[in-house]
Amino acid sequence: MTAPRRNLNLAEVEAIARTAHRSQTDKAGRPYGEHLHAVAEGVRIRGGSDEQIAAAWLHDAVEDAALSEEWLADAALPQEVKNMVLAVTKRDGEDLGSYTRRILDTPGALLIKESDLAHNADPARLAVLEPATRTRLAEKYAQVRGLLGLPPGESPVEQSVQANPAED
Length: 168
What we know:
Oligomer: single chain
Number of strands: 0
Number of helices: 10
Structural class: mainly alpha
Low-confidence stretches: 155-168
Distance between the termini: 43 Å
Radius of gyration: 16 Å
Strand content: under 5%
């Protein structure tokens, strides 16, 4: 009889995500691993589970083709992690309504997307972009927040996190 396969731990998931995105940069030219770390940390600070933190590390992997859906399907991860990753993966040509409904319909996915949006809309990150890009992205992020039922701008949780940063 074959022993059940051990799931990847958070350190292993982080290493996989960082390696998969190692040559990628964000819109501001920063290493993409910084964004992944910020989203995972945002989920942790907001009280997310280990499964949600793992999904946060992998949240853009399939969308950016850093890892394939086949890789995700075969990965030693709980199904709920895989479900959350797929829920926050925007598909080519998909309208925002379908995308946000899938997030809302998938347990745990909203917290990941909330943390992603918070980091994407960080004024310091947006400030380095061209004004037209900054405006377009800010409007897009606000629209997604609205469709997800999140308050505009910073949520009370985000304000609390900034006012009382966690000590390491």
